[in-house]
Specification:
seven-stranded mixed β-sheet; binds pyridoxal-5'-phosphate; alpha/beta; five-stranded mixed β-sheet; 381 residues; globular
């Protein structure tokens, strides 16, 4: 058996030997939409770029090695990777998803349900009894997202996946928030792992992308078939950029996590703060589970301030008010009116998305400067 390579080696070494023409170290971008056939009866490995593309292959190989997958599909966005997972299901399938899942995922599942394409049950994944009850009627797909967004609640992947498998369901995990460096859902029993590569994997806030990965070759083949049929595949240029971003992922995540840990503990000591959600804090309800299931706390923090969140946000000078995460710049957002505005108020309240809740994606600035900026915000409350 070949030795399993460490993540930093996987990303640094990814296909630096793939240019047969000039032996360039950085892989080229093969932007051609189509490829020449030697004769009409022998289909070449690459024929038409909606179906297969060398740049997507380089990226999927690196991501699959990081996740312990056998392969997968690179899509044009995180949401098209979600859609691809739903395309694998039969008509009328029952999908069990977290009541506090990513707003776009919630919207997509609801939209498909409203058209009668599937039946959805949104459940609190941390409530084992409620989860078991929802599974009783049978399920085709169980969707896991942990840590949740924006509350960073931790779902026990191994426990939920085992119960879901026993009920005959496929299990998918959205691993966007932690990246494969900090959590490996396939090793914990999931069938599918999904990423918005728009976020930390690319890390530079300059494109959209997604990935859906699996271990089972039959599942991978179905994913490739649907992605080609529906034209969900990502572009050669974006795939090349994401692989470029991926090369520094281990460095970025380490730095962002270190800063996030400092910021979260600083926030938790401030009198103008009601609550801090960060899996690395001992006070976090999921801290023990996170320590077991994750190899680090990640770089996301959410915080409830005392008073008017708008005044806090208006006083910030360095941190940008914007709704993405995982990039080089520290971003803050108000989920109730930004990322989760597609969720009806009752659903927001049930999911704990209050108007004073703010989500921070810690970036690569110096932590001292970030803390000084947050102090400005708190002083304005
Ligand atoms: C951003 C995000 C998505 C959607 O990805 P896009 O690339 O924006 O389509 C899905 N899940 C999570 C957790 C995300 O953060």
């Amino acid at each position: 058996m070949t030795q399993q390579r460490k993540p930093a080696t996987i990303v640094a070494a990814a296909r630096t030997d793939r240019d047969p023409a000039f032996a360039s170290v950085a892989p080229p971008i093969w932007s051609s939409d189509t490829y020449r056939w030697e004769d009409a009866d022998t289909k070449p490995g690459y024929d038409y770029s909606r179906t297969v593309s060398p740049n997507r292959d380089l990226l999927v190989e690196a991501l699959a090695e990081l996740e312990g997958a056998a392969g997968g599909v690179i899509t044009g966005s995180g949401q098209s990777a979600c859609l691809l997972a739903f395309l694998l299901l039969p008509a009328g399938a029952h999908v069990l998803a977290p009541h506090d899942c990513y707003g776009g995922t919630y919207r997509l599942i609801k939209g498909l349900e409203d058209q009668g394409k599937l039946r959805a049950t949104f459940v609190d994944m941390l409530d084992a009894a409620a989860f078991e009850r929802a599974l009783k009627g049978g399920a085709d797909l169980v969707w896991i997202e942990t840590p949740s967004n924006p509350l960073l609640r931790i779902t026990d992947i191994a426990a939920r996946a085992a119960a879901a498998k026993q009920a005959g369901a496929l299990v998918a995990a959205d691993n966007t928030l932690l990246t494969p460096l900090r959590q490996k859902p396939l090793a914990l029993g999931c069938d599918l792992v999904m990423h918005s590569t728009t976020k930390a994997l690319n890390g530079h806030s300059d494109l959209f992308g997604g990935a859906l990965l699996a271990r089972d070759p039959a599942l991978i083949e179905q994913m490739q078939w649907w992605s080609n049929a529906a034209g969900l595949n990502g572009s050669a240029f974006d795939s090349s950029q994401i692989l470029r971003g991926l090369r520094t992922l281990p460095l970025r995540v380490r730095q962002q996590e270190e800063s996030a840990t400092r910021i979260a503990s600083w926030l938790s000591e401030q009198p103008q703060v009601q609550a801090v959600n960060f899996p690395g804090l001992d006070s976090h309800e999921g801290a023990a589970l996170a320590a077991r299931q994750q190899s680090g706390p990640g770089f996301m923090i959410s915080v409830r301030v005392k008073g008017d969140a708008s005044r806090f946000l208006a006083a910030l000078d360095l941190i940008t008010l914007a709704s993405s995460l995982g990039g080089f710049a520290t971003l803050i957002c108000k989920p109730a009116t930004m990322t989760h505005r597609g969720m009806p108020p009752e659903a927001q309240a049930e999911a704990g998305i209050h108007p004073d809740l703010l989500r921070i994606s810690v970036g690569l600035e110096d932590a001292d400067d970030l803390i000084a900026d947050l102090a400005r915000g708190l002083a304005a409350l």
